[in-house]
Amino acid sequence: MSLLNQQRLYSDAQIEFAQSSPHLVWVTPPNRSMPLALRLQVFDLKGPRCAYCPEILTRENFTVDHIRPIARGGLTVLANLTVACRSCNSRKGATWAG
Ligand SMILES: [Zn+2]
């Protein structure tokens, strides 16, 4: 199975549609990158504070965390996404949020 075949790019029209449809499920490539527009939407809704510690984040240093990890069946939907600092996100890994 080739990774290249699974990678998807998101067109402007798809991103626009996603922004008007908060419950849309995004299918992300295996490298777990997601469109910048979706990341910024998560930051605007859930930021700027890290979900797991008091750190205040900026648009330059925040990461998007899957509350229920993809590895455990979590979906890339706004309801399952939150803002986390780098150290909390890497510490959490594929475990559930407390
Ligand atoms: Zn944190």
List key phrases describing it.
globular, two-stranded antiparallel sheet, 98 residues, binds zinc ion, disordered N terminus
Question: Can you lay out the helices and strands and say which pair or pack?
Answer:
Blueprint: H1 3-6, H2 12-19, H3 36-46, E1 63-66, E2 81-84, H4 86-92
Antiparallel strand pairs: 1-2
Bound molecules: zinc ion.
What is the CATH topology descriptor? DNA Binding (I), subunit A
Spans with pLDDT under 50 lasting ≥5 residues?
Answer: 1-7
Number of helices: 4
Question: Roughly how many Å is the radius of gyration?
Answer: 13 Å
What ligands are attached or bound here? zinc ion
Q: What share of residues is helical? A: 25-40%
Shape: globular
Placed side by side, the strands forming the largest sheet appear as 1-2
CATH class: Mainly Alpha
- Could you tell me the number of beta strands? 2
**CATH architecture assignment:** Orthogonal Bundle
Largest sheet: 2 strands, antiparallel
Question: How much strand?
Answer: 5-15%
For the record, the count of structural domains works out to 1
Structural class: alpha+beta
State mean pLDDT (0 to 100 scale): 77
Terminal residue distance? 35 Å
Order of helices and strands: HHHEEH
